[in-house]
């Protein structure tokens, strides 16, 4: 079932018409009951006119900005009115208001196992609006509750497809690949809510953390990974500096070193450059060729 527009009459114009009908009926009724000129048919016409006016008063409705009205006649969907203003439609038509405003849904903090099996806590904020009023009203029982359940299911599914953290750049993770993750989350929620006529404007992760029972252990793992990464950078830079030192000494012929002396020099430089604490220098007052 898809939404379609329903034509209505301006409420102000119809109000004037009904006022005119009422005045004409009152005048006709006075004529119909005038002694000597009684007219039962005219009385009946006036009564029917008043009944129509009374029934027509229930057909007026107002559409506020960023709001739509879904119209039904005897259970049949006849259309949607989105134009703000004062409207009149056929009597006995039921009118259900559906907000078109952009709204937020903040999911609860869900405890899920990530791709590596680690328990994590995750929550998301979903920005949404009703795009198709007919589908929102008639395709699902309660579109707001439907959104809540499907969004949380999508968040759970997302968390199980990615690891919380990854030191491999080619392997996306929840913590490092934010853009790809939220795009995936938005797409999955939109697919789940397509049948309910809901458009997902934006979806973002609002909370992401390891579960309390493993948070301390995973923090130590992260710290160890950071230390290993830092040490790798230090060693890489130290090797480059040693290589440059040997190359410059040889190029400028400052001193001639054999393989054993080069090995000793490399060892000493790496200790100095890679050590955590400052080294104590030892001055050699003799000769390198001893």
Radius of gyration: 39 Å
Cα-to-Cα separation, first versus last residue: 96 Å
Mean pLDDT: 84
Total domain modules: 3
CATH architecture of the largest domain: 2-Layer Sandwich
What's the CATH H-level superfamily name of the largest domain?
A: Band 7 domain
Give the SSE string: EHHEEEEEEEEHHHEHH
Per CATH, the class of the largest domain reads: Alpha Beta
Beta fraction? 15-25%
Tally the helices. 7
Textual characterization of the structure:
This protein is an alpha+beta fold and 290 residues long. The chain folds into 3 domains: 9-97, no CATH class; 103-210, Band 7 domain (Tetrahydropterin Synthase, Chain A, 2-Layer Sandwich), CATH 3.30.479.30; 215-274. 47% of the residues lie in helices and 22% in strands. It contains 7 helices and 10 strands. The strands form 3 sheets. Strands 7, 8, 9 and 10 form a 4-stranded antiparallel β-sheet that branches. Strands 1-5-2 form a 3-stranded antiparallel β-sheet. The protein has a 3-stranded antiparallel β-sheet with strand order 4-3-6. The protein starts with 8 loop residues before the first strand and ends in a 16-residue tail after the last helix.
């Amino acid at each position: 079932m898809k939404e379609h527009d329903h034509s209505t009459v301006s409420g102000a114009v119809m109000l004037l018409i009904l006022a005119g009908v009422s005045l004409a009926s009152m005048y006709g009724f006075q004529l119909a009951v005038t002694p000597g000129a009684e007219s039962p048919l005219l009385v009946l016409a006036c009564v029917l006119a008043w009944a129509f006016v009374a029934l027509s008063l229930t057909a007026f409705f107002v559409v506020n900005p960023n709001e739509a009205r879904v119209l039904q006649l005897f259970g049949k969907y006849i259309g949607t009115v989105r134009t703000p203003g004062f409207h009149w439609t056929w009597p006995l038509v039921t009118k259900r208001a559906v907000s078109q405003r952009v709204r937020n849904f903040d999911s609860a903090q869900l405890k899920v196992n990530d791709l590596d099996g680690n328990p994590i806590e995750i929550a998301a904020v979903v920005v949404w609006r009703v795009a198709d009023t007919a589908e929102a009203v008639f395709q699902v029982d309660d579109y707001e509750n439907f959104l809540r359940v499907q969004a949380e299911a999508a968040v759970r599914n997302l968390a199980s497809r990615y690891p919380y953290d990854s030191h491999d750049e080619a392997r996306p993770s929840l913590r490092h690949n934010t853009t790809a993750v939220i795009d995936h989350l938005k797409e999955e929620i939109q697919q789940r809510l397509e049948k309910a006529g809901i458009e997902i404007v934006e979806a973002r992760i609002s909370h992401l953390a390891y579960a309390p029972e493993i948070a301390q252990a995973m923090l130590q793992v992260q710290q160890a990974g950071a230390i290993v990464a830092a040490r790798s950078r230090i060693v890489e830079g130290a090797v480059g500096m040693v290589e440059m030192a040997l190359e410059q000494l040889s190029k400028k012929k400052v001193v001639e070193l054999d393989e054993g002396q080069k090995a000793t020099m490399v060892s000493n430089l790496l200790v100095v450059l890679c050590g955590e604490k400052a080294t104590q220098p030892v001055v050699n007052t003799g000769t390198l060729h001893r």
